[in-house]
Amino acid sequence: MEYISTRGEAPVLNFEEVMLAGLADDGGLYVPLEWPKFSTDEILSLRGLSYPEIAEYVISPFVDNAIDVSTQRKLIKLAYQNFGHSSVAPLRRLDKNVSILELFHGPTLAFKDFALQLLGCFFEEVLRKRGERVTIVGATSGDTGSAAIEACKNRDTIDIFILHPDQRTSEIQRRQMTTVTAKNVHNIAIQGTFDDCQDLVKGMFRDRKFRETMNLSAVNSINWARIMAQIVYYFSSAVALGAPETKVAYSVPTGNFGDVFAGYAAKKMGLPIYKLIVGTNSNDILERFFESGDMSYRAVVPTLSPAMDIQVSSNFERLLFDLAGNDADVVNTAMASFRDLGLMKYPPEILSLAQEIFYASSVDDEETLRVIKSIWEDFDILIDPHTATAISAGKKASLESEVEMVVLSTAHPAKFPDAVIRATAKKPELPQRLSHILDAPEFYTKLPNDLEAVMDHIRQPATSQG
Ligand SMILES: *Cc1c(COP(=O)(O)O)cnc(C)c1O
Fold first, then answer.
1. Relative to the CA of 104, which ligand 1 atom is closest?
2. What's the 284 CA to ligand 1 centre distance in angstroms?
3. pLDDT band, very low/low/confident/very high, at 466 (cuts 50, 70, 90)
4. 389 lines ligand 1 (CB under 6 A)
5. Which of 1, 187, 230, 402 is the most exposed place for a label (fewest CB within 10 A)?
């Protein structure tokens, strides 16, 4: 399988190269040159298979011969064996025609584990084969950092350094990172904001000498392999609900547009998805785009669903490229106008194509709390604030009655206890297997918001928190 960049200037790469590279060197994102297509019979044949079996079927055309089939099977099994539910991604019926897809049974209780657990296994396999080591650096305001740490811990070929803003993550999120006692895991608390952390990471990648000596790598949401892993649960859930005969639609809590783009990919591969609903919080750029074509930047406001406090959804570029018929010129013009004017310019037909498939709705904090409360009162189920935005957006989409709507539940309620308690006066309990983090010792290094100081720290081979 060959992969091309959305900006048209970077070299064509194979799967292994795309996974290790992350971002394309022309600043674009990699996408498959051609999409694998499954026939109705092939989709029917997935019925009754286990999650790892469906994953193998969906993923193998993308991985191609970069990893041989029996190794792929072994790694997929490993990646999903630490999930706290035997179905990995169980569906739970909420109401007539509405189900919740629980994507929070992974080791860090959020859907990012689906991609990162697999990516960790694949990275290690490929690096070992090449005899290489990498240093992964990343910035996190919460979920991504812990999911990346869990995916990379105790791997011989990887050192991972995660920067978080000191005192500015929730306690649970910080403890999920800082209580991990693996030799190759290094937490850094930066005296600054999340943006400062991100700037430090960008600064390290821009320093060519540092990048090359440390063999820097990233596992952020633009990595193609992450999208690929997320396509699987669209297939597994649709088939479980009776697709391809049954019409299914998905409502997805959206920030960087990676998760919902995986749904778009599933549709391109032949899964009959009737509608993709984008749920956002008050950071509503996507609602404005899908409603009226207005893709203009506004400042980010903090909300109860912090993983979606984003105004520039990086994976949107992949959609734009696809809707433009793989025309990199369209993407380059759009991204340049967005960067220079804060307003994305694109040909008008893009919007109507997008509206055929997508519907978007922005949900503010008040509505989010109301939804958490009503789901608790009506169904005895606690949901997290991200999931709540998707439930609300899904309702507003007013789908026809024969369509089965699947709401992606991207985080366990115990990850966001404050919002849940405010809405329901009930405290969501951490699952037993995580309760130890509440009193385990924490390991991290506090550093100033200073690039040289952080790079010095990462250069020391002996830094370890274990
Ligand atoms: C990351 C995240 C999202 C947003 O997913 P994208 O792929 O960035 O759109 C939604 N909910 C939770 C809980 C997350 O951690």
1. 13
2. 15
3. very low
4. no
5. 402
Averaged over 436-461, what is the pLDDT?
94
Residue range 97-117: mean pLDDT, rounded: 97
Q: Is the CB of 110 under 6 A from ligand 1?
A: yes
Q: What percent of the chain has pLDDT over 90?
A: 87
Could you tell me the pLDDT band of residue 169, with boundaries at 50, 70 and 90?
Answer: confident
pTM: 0.95
Assess whether pLDDT exceeds 50 at residue 450. yes
d(C-alpha 69, C-alpha 61), whole Å:
10
- Domains for the chain: give ranges and CATH numbers: 91-108+224-424 (3.40.50.1100), 133-220+431-466 (3.40.50.1100)
* 3 state SS for the chain: CCEEECCCCCCCECHHHHHHHCCCCCCCCEEECCCCCCCHHHHHCCCCCCHHHHHHHHHHHHHHHHCCHHHHHHHHHHHHCCCCCCCCCCEEEEECCEEEEECCCCCCCECHHHHHHHHHHHHHHHHHHHCCCEEEEEECCCHHHHHHHHHHCCCCCEEEEEEEECCCCCHHHHHHHHCCCCCCEEEEEEECCHHHHHHHHHHHHHCHHHHHHHCEECCCCCCHHHHHHHHHHHHHHHHHCCCCCCCEEEEEECCCCHHHHHHHHHHHCCCCEEEEEEEECCCCHHHHHHHHCCCECCCCCCCCCHHHCCCCCCCHHHHHHHHCCCCHHHHHHHHHHHHHHCECCCCHHHHHHHHHHEEEEECCHHHHHHHHHHHHHHHCCCCCHHHHHHHHHHHHCCCCCCCEEEEEECECHHHCHHHHHHHHCCCCCCCHHHHHHHCCCCCCEEEECCHHHHHHHHHCCCCCCC
Distance 38 CA to ligand 1 centre (A): 27
Verify whether residue 112 is a known catalytic residue: yes
